[in-house]
Amino acid sequence: MFRIIDGALYEGKVSYDAWDVRVWREGGHTEVSASRPVIWAEVASAGPVVDLLGNLVEPEPLTEAEQAALDAERKEKNLERAARRARTKCRRLIKAASLDEMLTLTYRENQTDRALAQRHFKEWVRRMRRALPEFRYVAALEPQARGAWHIHLATDRLPKHVSYRGVRIDAWKLGTRVWRSIVGEGNGLCFVGGKDRFGRPRRDRMSIAQLAAYVSKYITKGYADCDAEVNRYSCSCGLDAGKPECLRLHCTSIRDMVETIVFATSLERVVAMSLTPMGDRFWFCTEPGMKRGKLNDVGGIRKG
User: Has this prediction a pTM greater than 0.85?
Assistant: First the structure.
């Protein structure tokens, strides 16, 4: 791979004697990603191109079709990167805040206007806070197959009962009553709890890490239908996901890298672990547990 920086041509080569590692820890949760670093070195001056006779060669301009295809490709990549960043931020906000209740807001009618769905949701949050002043959330919008929007959100565990318009009701009914006061009676539902892979209500309660993955995955669904500046998730004010720690492990083999990461992080519950087919990227995620050591920058584990 090549880059032109300040008029000079640089070549990037993957280094196979180290790993760049990003470690994120908040609320007892750990996410670790590792990839081979790319080392850039200057190879030549990026001056004008000449032929064998020394004549200046002007690059041929792109046709309108070629330029349009190039612009479309760049837009697609930018949207994909924006969606991945938003998904990571959404997932980490839920974990850092320890949000452990799953809610889903739906429309009965085929409501396909994203901006309207966002306005309805904003008003729903405002009214929910009248009954639950400490109400916190992280939410993502998802288009259904029919085109209608619905909203997945993670919140704090709901109390058993709550007062709504002067009447004491079961808290799980609150979301639906507030939602229908906005979108119309019988036009929507606030479903409490997640669904399994067959679309049925889950009988078991999801862990915080599972809930965070469930909500955030919808951010990258249909990302091409959203502009880059569109907010792909929303959250309560004051929530902070923190920042990852970046370091370099000086070990050559995949096995050494994986063992270093796994034994330096919480081992009570491994949520996810994956390695790309080419062996150049590794992903590891855990939930709270007993820590055995701490990653350092010399390719090993520091006990403590």
Answer: no
Asked whether the beta carbons of 142 and 214 are under 8 A apart, the reply is no
Alpha-carbon distance 18 to 37, whole Å? 7
pLDDT in tens, 137-167: 999 988 888 888 989 999 999 999 999 988 9
Longest CA–CA span in the chain (Å) reads 90
Instruction: Say which residues have a Cβ less than 8 Å from residue 116's Cβ, sequence separation at least 6.
Output: none
Question: How many domains would you assign to the chain?
Answer: 1
Residue 57 lies in a domain: no
Q: Print the domain residue range for 140.
A: 101-206
C-alpha to C-alpha distance for 272 and 51, rounded to whole angstroms: 54
Strand order in the sheet with 281-287: 245-249, 19-26, 29-35, 281-287, 269-275
Asked if residue 275 is part of any domain, the answer here is no
Which two structure tokens, joined as six digits, stand for 132? 């639950």
Q: How far, rounded to the nearest angstrom, does the alpha carbon of residue 178 sit from its chain's CA centroid?
A: 28
CATH of the domain at 175: 3.30.70
**Identity at 87, one-letter amino acid code:** R
